[in-house]
Design goal:
The complex is a heterodimer of chains A (399) and B (300). Chain A has 399 residues and is an alpha/beta fold. Chain A has two domains: 182 residues, 3-Layer(aba) Sandwich (D-Maltodextrin-Binding Protein, domain 2); 158 residues, D-Maltodextrin-Binding Protein, domain 2 (3-Layer(aba) Sandwich), CATH 3.40.190. Chain A is built from 14 helices and 14 strands. The longest helix of chain A has 25 residues. The termini of chain A are far apart. With 300 residues, chain B is mostly helical. Chain B has two domains: 40 residues, no CATH class; 213 residues, MetI-like fold, CATH 1.10.3720.10. Chain B is built from 14 helices and two strands. Chain B has a two-stranded antiparallel ribbon with strand order 1-2. In chain B, a hairpin with an 8-residue loop joins strand 1 and strand 2. The longest helix of chain B is centred in the middle third of the chain and has 35 residues. The radius of gyration of chain B is 27 Å and the shape is extended. The chains are: A alpha/beta (399), B mainly alpha (300). At the A-B interface, helix 1, helix 3, helix 4, strand 9 and helix 14 of A face helix 3, helix 5 and helix 13 of B.
């Protein structure tokens, strides 16, 4: 290469490095929460912008793409003039990554993603006086540690539910009553068991050890110090050879249970409903085992730089309406946040089945939240494993 | 009456003519305009993003017990690379992915050679054309469609292979290798087919005349001529398998490749994901350097 060419190449390389360094340092604004006054939320809902981009858990914002008869997005579009594009995700990590891109106005976020989004400055402060259904929402869910920071609201409750243990009634006998069924090294169903494909699934192992090995002293499945975490990771590694497939796409799990390539494992109610609705499927049941369950309490959050903030508020007002909440709660299989929905469900016992508004039942579940180095069970003097450590452990567990 | 001289060629047509004249007179400007767009894209978008990836991989997170999230340390350090090299699982996953990439390359090579040879040398012209269409037609189907089709084939409980043969490789590394071999086969067949088309039949006849059997002809005459084509095909199959993560999720069962680790670490620890993502880049650089030094790339 001639000298001139070589110099040119080096110059280009230097420019690229400078540009990359510059842009990377601008984007590294991670902080432990804002120390200045929080920005005030939007003051009023203005005119509809004509479009809104929704990022949702499957089953939350049905627009007919899954089942043409199930659609509560279309009436929303007709009522508000906001044309809605809906994107579904399978895990909170996916939700976090997608919401970070800034392409979505509103997201249904579980407790293990909400605070990460707030800390990442992706989430907007929500002005609850603009929410028409706020007063009817279950007080168990409002202004809680996973959807608010120091009393400032970032998330509007949508609904909550437990992760369940689903089993094929023909194959798995006797019927299981404990999470031990999926952690049993000598399980007869080896190779046909499933688990949730996300680092947060480690909490399920922690919950099992919390109840079966109290000597470990686990008080909160999301607050694990080094010894406790090692014990849980070892348990997950015991489970690994039993697993046929981990699932993050609920339809793949549904399909596998219908075909009976999987017969036992953690699930959501919507998946069980789907298997039971299929005429060719074996009979299945889903239970909360005797140890209790991990669970999720979901909130709608608005993007800090939403392109359609008015339509975003309109969507939240729509999805928290009693009749829509009733539809969602029955379709997905969860407890609605708006307790007025209970009178409107097709199955009149829906709310009692799902314990909507039942504080003592609600208190027994262990809702997804982001593990942090500051122990979530209030312990001082020890450091707990944070989500990066959980992710690294999940790399190891999958092998 | 004043006469104004009009230059018939250069003054006619006004603006467009002027541009045309300038471009005609300045060949380097022509070249710059032609290549400017693609080169800018290449340098800024492609190379620039690679450099951003490398720079990000030198950052790392530090525990911050008081805060909600860890602190990002932007002074360069090799922490992430040390973690990749010293932790068993990341080495295992890397070797598994390289092994899969090599397997896919070898399988596709073994299938592509006879198929391409038949297409180039033995098939009648209309059969040849039909086979070219047949080999490239799967490329028209979407990646996901083919992935899920293979999922239905490989399903150990009632999939096509299980129903027909009584046995299926199931979901796992072998299932993924089979599926990826199917996906990338056209990329191996077409370069080898093109290389064989260029091979004069007289070489094969001369070899036979001099007493070489088919096998010897193939190894001593055909394969060396085909080396650039094989390298071209193998670059596709190797690189595409090395970077694949979605097929591992569809038919891989519980297995994970380099791409899956990067995808997972992307939200929890972006600098580490960047560091792990440089591994396939390095592997391909070594691969291509080897291909270049063997002279295969010159003949492409």
């Amino acid at each position: 290469m001639r000298h001139a060419n070589r110099l040119a190449v080096m110059a280009v390389a230097l420019v690229l490095v400078a540009a990359a360094c510059g842009s990377s340092s601008k984007s590294s604004t991670t902080s432990g929460g804002s120390t200045s006054l929080p920005p005030a939320g939007q003051q009023a809902i203005g005119a509809a912008e004509g479009a809104v981009s929704i990022l949702a858990w499957p089953g939350y914002a049905e627009n007919g793409s899954n089942d043409p008869k199930v659609n509560w997005v279309k009436p929303f579009e007709a009522a508000t003039g906001c044309k809605a594009t809906v994107k579904y995700f399978g895990t909170s990590d996916e939700a976090f990554n997608l919401f970070k891109t800034g392409q979505y106005d509103v997201v249904s976020s579980s407790g293990d993603a909400t605070l990460r989004m707030v800390a990442d400055n992706d989430a907007a402060v929500i002005n609850t006086s603009l929410l028409t259904n706020w007063k009817d929402l279950d007080p168990l869910l409002k202004v809680k540690p996973w959807n608010s920071v120091n009393g400032v609201v970032y998330g509007v409750p949508h609904g909550w539910g437990a992760n369940l243990l689903m089993y094929n009634k023909n194959v798995v006998t006797p019927a299981p009553d404990s999470w031990g069924a999926v952690f049993d090294a000598n399980s007869p169903y080896k190779g046909k068991i499933t688990g949730y494909d996300s680092p947060i699934y480690i909490a399920d192992g922690a919950l099992y050890l919390m109840k079966t090995k109290p000597e470990l002293g686990i008080k909160d499945p999301y607050a694990l110090d080094d010894t406790q975490f090692q014990a849980v990771v070892d348990l997950m590694k015991v489970q690994r050879p039993l697993i046929g497939e981990y699932w993050s796409d609920y339809l793949k799990e549904q399909d596998a249970f219908i075909k009976a390539s999987l017969v036992l494992g953690t699930t959501w109610q919507i998946t069980t409903n789907g298997v039971q609705a299929d005429k060719t499927a074996p009979p299945v049941a889903a239970i909360i085992p005797k140890e209790g369950s991990t669970a999720w309490s979901d909130s709608w959050m608005i993007d800090a730089k939403a392109k359609h903030p008015n339509c975003a508020y309109m969507w939240i007002n729509w999805i928290t309406k009693p009749d829509i909440q009733a539809q969602v709660a029955e379709y997905f299989g969860e407890a609605p946040a708006n307790l007025k929905a209970c009178a409107l469900t097709v199955d009149k016992s829906h709310c009692s089945t799902y314990h909507a508004g039942d504080a003592s039942f609600y208190g027994q579940l262990y809702y997804w939240k982001t593990p942090t180095a500051k122990c979530l069970d209030g312990r001082t003097g020890v450091t707990c494993k944070d989500y990066a450590a959980w992710t690294a452990a999940w790399d190891e567990i999958k092998g | 009456m004043a006469t104004t001289t009009i230059d018939p060629v250069n003054e006619r047509g006004g603006f467009r003519r002027r541009i045309s004249r300038v471009l005609y007179q300045r060949p380097r400007l022509r070249l710059a305009l032609l290549l400017g767009g693609p080169l800018t894209w290449l340098v800024v978008a492609y190379l620039g993003s690679l450099v951003a990836l490398l720079v990000t991989s030198l950052y790392h997170y530090q525990d911050d017990p008081t805060g909600l999230v860890q602190r990002l340390v932007t002074s360069p350090s090799a922490t992430n690379y040390q973690r990749v090299l010293n932790t068993d699982v990341y080495r295992t996953v890397a070797f598994r992915t390289i092994g899969a990439a090599l397997s896919v390359t070898v399988i596709d090579l073994l299938i592509a050679l006879p198929v391409a040879f038949y297409m180039a040398k033995l098939a009648r012209p209309w059969v040849r054309r039909a086979l070219v269409v047949a080999v490239t037609m799967p490329l028209w189907a979407g990646y996901l469609v083919k992935g899920y089709a293979w999922r239905a084939m490989l399903d150990p409980a009632g999939g096509v292979l299980h129903e027909v043969f009584g046995h299926s490789p199931g979901f796992g590394v072998s299932g993924t290798v089979v599926t990826l071999s199917y996906l990338w086969l056209p990329y191996m067949v077409i370069p080898i087919y093109a290389g064989l088309e260029r091979l004069p039949n007289s070489l094969l006849e001369a070899s036979t005349d001099l007493g070489a059997k088919a096998g010897r002809t193939f190894v001593r005459i055909v394969l060396p001529q085909l080396r650039p084509s094989i390298v071209a095909g193998s670059i596709f199959t190797f690189a595409l398998t090395l970077g694949d993560f979605y097929m591992a999720q569809i038919v891989g069962g519980t297995t994970q490749f380099i791409g899956n680790v990067v995808y997972r670490e992307f939200s929890a620890n972006l600098p580490f994901a960047a560091a792990y993502a440089t591994l396939p880049i390095l592997i391909m650089v070594v691969y291509l350097a080897g291909a270049r030094s063997s002279g295969a790339l010159e003949e492409l």
